[in-house]
Amino acid sequence: MPLLPEPLPASPVLVVSEWLNDALREQARPNPNAMSLATVNGDGQPSVRVVLCKELVTEPGYLVFYTNYQSAKSADIQTNPKVSFLMHWDRQGRQVRGEGLLVKSPASESDAYFMSRDRGSRIGAWASAQSQTVQSRATLEAQFAATAERFQNQDVPRPEHWGGYRLWFTAIELWLSMDSRLHDRALWKRTVKTNPDGTPEAGNWQTVGRLQP
Questions:
Q1: pLDDT tens digits for 142-201?
Q2: Which 3 state secondary structure label does DSSP give 119?
Q3: Helix H or strand E segment including 172
Q4: Where are the domains of the chain?
Q5: 62 and 13 in contact (C-beta within 8 Å)?
Q6: Diameter of the chain by CA atoms?
Q7: Rounded-to-integer distance, Cα 81 and Cα 102, Å
Q8: Nearest-angstrom CA–CA distance, 1 and 21
Q9: Residue 15: Cβ within 10 Å count
Q10: Architecture of the domain whose range is 13-116+160-211
Q11: Closest CA to 53 of 166, 162, 191, 163
Q12: Are strands 55-57 and 62-68 parallel, antiparallel or unpaired?
């Protein structure tokens, strides 16, 4: 397997995009775009779960995933928008570990993606109070049936409590599996600040360098 370039590229995001596209093209696993997302709540308790990276924007450098804005993860994000993520493709021996700042996607972007989902998934976004307890599986299925009847013979619009997040990268580590566990690792960092109007502004990438395995 080839090593990371020498010298290292000024920005790691194009490499992330290349690796993700390779995994999607080769169907590296059932969900090649799956990634682990770690958040921290107000008590300092970390949580991790798998979400799907639906878009990677190389410039200015963020990825997009979608979720329920009333979920446990969204409650964590509201308290602390700083998160960590991990993408791992075992077959290719590649891994991307990173950190970033989460900002809600524009409503128009969330609308467009929501309408691309199948009808059942759109009904489910209305029917399920994500992360809340439910009396039984039968209760959940009854909620879904009632919601399906509510939207019978009409389109299913995006609920306000569902949408996207843009994860603006502040750190990215690229990892390649190598023989004798002499894995090839490199780290980049940058700052992302939030302007008074709430929009993020990213600084230039700084190459920290190769890391010992």
A1: 999 999 999 999 999 999 999 999 999 999 999 999 999 999 999 999 999 999 988 899
A2: helix
A3: strand 162-176
A4: 13-116+160-211
A5: no
A6: 61
A7: 5
A8: 17
A9: 20
A10: Roll (2.30)
A11: 166
A12: antiparallel
The helix (H) or strand (E) run that includes residue 141 is helix 137-150
* Range list of β-strands (E), 105-147: none
Whether the predicted pLDDT of 28 surpasses 80: no
Instruction: Return the structure tokens found at 150.
Output: 């509510």
**Contact status, residue 192 vs residue 166, Cβ threshold 8 Å:** no
Q: Which residue has the tokens 């009409």?
A: 154
- Residues with Cβ < 8 Å from 124, sequence gap 6 or more? 144
Establish how many alpha carbons lie within 13 A of residue 31's alpha carbon, considering only the half-sphere containing its beta carbon: 10
From CA 37, how far away is CA 44, in angstroms rounded?
A: 16
Q: How many CB atoms lie within 10 A of CB 32?
A: 21
138 Cβ contact list (under 8 Å, min separation 6): none
Contact (CB, 8 A) for 105 and 166: yes
- For residue 143, with 0-12 CB atoms within 10 Å meaning exposed, 13-18 middle and 19 or more buried, which class applies? middle
Sole residue written with tokens 């709540």: 41
Catalytic residues: 181
Q: How buried is 197 (Cβ within 10 angstroms: 0-12 exposed, 13-18 middle, 19+ buried)?
A: exposed
- Whether residue 111 contacts residue 178, with contact meaning beta carbons closer than 8 Å, is answered with no
| Separation between Cα atoms, residue 141 and residue 4, nearest integer Å | 49
pTM: 0.94
Residue 9's contacts (CB-CB under 8 Å, 6 or more residues apart) are 15
